[in-house]
Design goal:
43% of the residues lie in helices and 23% in strands. By secondary structure, the chain is of the alpha/beta class. Strands 4-3-5-12-6 form a 5-stranded mixed β-sheet, with helices on both faces. It has a 3-stranded antiparallel β-sheet with strand order 10-7-11. Strands 1-2 form a two-stranded antiparallel ribbon. It contains 10 helices and 12 strands. The longest helix is centred in the first third of the chain and has 28 residues. The protein is rod-shaped.
Length: 293
Amino acid sequence: MELRHLKYFLAVAEELNFTKASEKLFISQPPLSRQIIELEEEVGARLFNRNNKKVELTEAGKYFEKEVRELFQNLEHITLKTKKIAENTSGDFRIAYISSIYSTVISELIKHLKEQFPYVNFKLFEISTTKQISALEQGKIELGIIRSPIKSPKIKSQLWFQDGFSVVYNKSSIQINSEEEIPNLKDETFVFFNKDYAPHYHEVLLELCAFYGFTPKVVHESNNINSIVQLVKNGLGISIVPSNIARNNQDPEIDFVELKKVNLYTDVSLITSREDESEITKSAVAFLLNFKK
């Protein structure tokens, strides 16, 4: 049994007239009649009662018509899903982000993408800027969220937002009432990002401290912003973190002082492959650019 047999059957079942059905199918009537006979022989049941005056479905034919219509509906669904896969709306889409980007926006991004592309398996990776650049160049991720700068001929970078800096401290260990008191922190213990993990960010933090007239006494290091904030909360030192961390942290044990006098910022950028023109990537980038931070 072939699909053409079923299509011919449905045409005759709809028209209940072999002449009209053959015209609809753009074939002559004798071959159509032969195809229906072959189908009946294969099924082992008469599907039509026919004479010189009329054609009608038998009880078996009525049941067969119902099932064949459902079969074609399922086939249409399968075809649509296959088309979506071919259009790159299925498979894996890998997104990397730095730890200093608050999780709310990442969660909202995934929800948004899943609604648009339900057949896609979205995967998240929290990795450093330098590793993201390497992963994107090697095709291991499709979208990265990094702190600039970036120099790579293979990567397209788009500024998402500029982020300032804030001092974070444990309120039970130290009191900082204003930015004017920052120079007094020269003897305090600092918790910083590891220099090898985020070299550019590390240099910016040193510049910030130099602006306020001291070199920080860095005792503890971490590769994760949440770990840094936790170390500060535990009373092991103070740190300087991106201001968006301060805006999105509600922990009552710690507080932040934004560094407004110094004209230093980091560019948070979205990176994609220069060759990537997929609808998923375009949708993800557009969502982030429109997201209210």
